[in-house]
Amino acid sequence: MALDIRLFPCLGDNYGFLVRDAATGVVATIDTPDADRILAELEASGWGRLDLILNTHWHPDHAGGNAAVQATTGCRIVGPDEVRRIAPLDRVVAGGEVVMLGETALEVTATPGHTLGHVVYRSAADGEALVGDTVFVLGCGRLFEGTAEQMWASLSALATWPDDTRIWCAHEYTAANARFALSLDDRPEMQAHAEAIFAARERGEATVPTVLGVEKRFNPFLTAADAAEFARRRTAKDGFSG
């Protein structure tokens, strides 16, 4: 099996993703942060089609381009029920379901916290996960709707995946997240990890994707001991200006 993933920057700090099942050529976009940018990237890819929009949650920088992309490509729109707050859906999905992208099975996991209906998509066979705003490199999504306990449970569920799972998160927040992580973690290996991130960003390089095993070592929201410590760290990050 093979899953091709094209990452590209859009808006201020979002990433867009085009995902193709290599066996069948079926293509999806993960969220629609910027319809024009997605359509331009689709043309540049040479993949020649767009079959699905797979929404992770309802926020406008993730579902705001649904109508325009569908109008141009005729694709179907799949996502959690909350997306209906701003756009129609052709199929509503929830945790425990599977979306087929050609021959690739994308498992849907519910990850409430950032929003109440947030979901993520994972190809277990390919070791690839597209996680929206649930987890970032050295970070996690703000709790706009859910509770700290919900987000902790969501992150804990993701942490059970194999350590070599590649994590494709939807924003380039990594330098700021690294500065916060350094305020909590003075291990030499944490310092080295942060310095490598700062250098990559100075070169204009993306820090996405990351690898789950690395996040379990360094991400302060995954290394918390329990939900209470996670809540304290999330509150501290919200007010952090370092």
User: How many E-type strands?
Assistant: 14
User: What is the percent of helical residues?
Assistant: 25-40%
Secondary structural class:
alpha/beta
- What is the C-alpha radius of gyration, as a whole number of Å? 17 Å
The succession of helices and strands, N to C, reads EEEHEHHEEEEEEEEHEHHEHH
Biggest beta-sheet profile: 6 strands, mixed
The poorly predicted ranges are: none
Average pLDDT across residues? 97
Major sheet strand order: 1-2-3-4-5-6
3D shape: globular
Describe the structure in your own words.
This protein is of the alpha/beta class and 242 residues long. Helix content is 33%, strand content 25%. The protein is built from eight helices and 14 strands. It has a six-stranded mixed beta sheet with strand order 1-2-3-4-5-6, with helices on one face. Helix 1 runs parallel beside helix 3. The chain starts with a strand and ends with a helix.
Would you kindly provide a brief summary of this structure?
With 242 residues, the chain is an alpha/beta fold. The protein has helices at 35-45, 60-63, 66-73, 148-158, 174-184, 188-202, 212-218, 227-238, and strands at residues 3-10, 14-21, 27-30, 52-54, 76-79, 91-92, 98-101, 104-110, 119-123, 128-132, 135-136, 139-140, 166-169, 210-211.
